[in-house]
């Protein structure tokens, strides 16, 4: 079987079998030994809704499932502060977690903490962003593929208009290696097919910074010359759309996004944001939990790896990379609603009821 196509059930069965094997070989014969693990989870911020709504609870649930309720998730959120995240990592190392799962605020700044963990015999899984330092494994989405998906959807939405105006490209933070992947993927699709009027790397991925950049782009290019906006994520898309509205741009040009935040989904329903990328967080979080448990128990992870990647400091890191899905007004029901990301009731609040009725989302 191609490991890229493994089902969650197959992965769970694989890890559970490893768990039982580990339990059966314990010196004291205690069946709880292999399952009694502490998984340290470090998430980068809470401004993006996904971390608290999806990643943490999904991973917590999977750790409990794979350890028969005996494993424990120890959690900390850095609130966007790289120094705070390093301190949180130090605390988890001091408290002797069995494995560390790290979604880095700053991929370079976390390298020292990763090295400390390894020196203490604690394996490290880089989660969502490829941290520097001697990480043991990496779980994320295929970032270049996501950029290509965003670029292709934007290009398709423009049609002949692609030749008649300029687009603005709003990339993510330079401190985030994922941003470089999204940018490379999008540029691979868009270069030579559209005229890029302005391009920005957005500090800290912040909505307000994207909004300020968009205002500058409108001033430089003219509001009637912008035919589309590549936005690397939904939070920035919200700031971009606000700036476009304030400038009196009508109709709004197609704007891309990523992360399927609820306000972005509602903007898509309303026709303000053209698309977002749905990344099945359950697969990412569950895969990270599976890797973490295997590494904590000293088991091999080869059976669930589908890629090998390299960071500036570490070559050939075993990885699980997952594909994303483009979401527009046409497929919200068959993606987000079907996968229980949001209910129709959550999306179609009073302000969006008419727009939901228009696309049959009721």
Average pLDDT metric: 91
Uncertain segments: 1-32
What is the makeup of the main sheet?
Answer: 7 strands, mixed
Structural class, by secondary structure, is alpha/beta
Number of strands: 12
The termini sit apart by 39 Å
- Principal-axis shape: globular
The helix-strand sequence is HEHEHEHEEHEHEHEHHEHEEEHHH
Radius of gyration: 21 Å
Total number of helices: 13
Overview of this structure, please?
The protein is α/β, with parallel strands linked by helices and 362 residues long. Helices cover 43% and strands 16% of the residues. It is built from 13 helices and twelve strands. It is globular and about 60 Å long.
What features would you highlight for this structure?
362 residues, 7-stranded mixed β-sheet, 16% strand, disordered N terminus
Fold topology:
Elements: H1 8-24, E1 38-43, H2 50-66, E2 72-77, H3 82-94, E3 99-102, H4 111-119, E4 124-127, E5 137-141, H5 143-158, E6 166-171, H6 177-190, E7 195-201, H7 207-221, E8 226-231, H8 234-246, H9 262-270, E9 276-278, H10 281-296, E10 307-309, E11 317-322, E12 325-327, H11 332-337, H12 344-347, H13 353-358
Parallel strand pairs: 1-2, 1-3, 3-4, 4-5, 5-11, 6-7, 6-8
Antiparallel strand pairs: 9-12, 10-11
């Amino acid at each position: 079987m191609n490991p890229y196509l493994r089902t969650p059930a197959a992965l769970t069965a694989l890890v559970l079998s490893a768990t039982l094997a580990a339990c059966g070989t314990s010196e004291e014969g205690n069946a709880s030994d292999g399952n009694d693990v502490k998984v340290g989870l470090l998430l980068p911020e809470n401004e993006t809704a996904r971390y608290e709504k999806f990643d943490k609870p999904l991973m917590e649930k999977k750790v409990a499932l794979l350890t028969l309720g005996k494993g424990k998730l120890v959690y900390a959120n850095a609130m966007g502060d790289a120094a705070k995240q390093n301190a949180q990592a130090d605390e988890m190392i001091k408290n002797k977690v069995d494995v560390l799962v790290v979604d880095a605020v700053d991929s370079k700044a976390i390298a020292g903490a990763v090295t400390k963990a390894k020196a203490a015999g604690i394996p490290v899984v880089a989660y969502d962003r490829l941290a520097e330092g001697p990480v043991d494994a990496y779980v994320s989405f295929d970032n270049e593929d996501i950029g290509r998906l965003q670029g292709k959807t934007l290009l398709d939405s423009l049609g002949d208009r692609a030749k008649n105006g300029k687009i603005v490209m709003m990339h993510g933070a330079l401190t985030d290696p994922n941003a470089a992947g999204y940018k490379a993927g999008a540029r691979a699709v868009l270069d030579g097919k559209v005229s890029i009027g302005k391009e920005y790397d957005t500090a800290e991925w912040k909505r307000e910074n994207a909004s300020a950049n968009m205002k500058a782009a409108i001033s430089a290019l003219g509001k009637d010359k912008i035919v589309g906006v590549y936005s690397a994520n939904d939070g920035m898309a919200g700031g971009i759309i606000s700036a476009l509205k304030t400038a009196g741009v009508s109709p709004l040009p197609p704007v891309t996004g990523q992360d399927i935040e609820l306000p972005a989904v509602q903007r898509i329903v309303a026709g303000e944001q053209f698309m977002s990328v749905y990344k099945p967080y359950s697969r990412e979080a569950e895969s990270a939990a599976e890797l973490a448990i295997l590494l904590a128990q000293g088991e091999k992870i080869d059976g669930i790896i589908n890629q090998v990647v390299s960071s500036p400091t570490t070559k050939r890191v075993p990885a699980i990379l997952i594909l994303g899905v483009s979401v527009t007004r046409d497929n919200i029901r068959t993606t987000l609603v079907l996968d229980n990301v949001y209910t129709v009731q959550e999306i179609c609040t009073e302000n969006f009821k008419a727009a939901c009725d228009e696309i049959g989302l009721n």
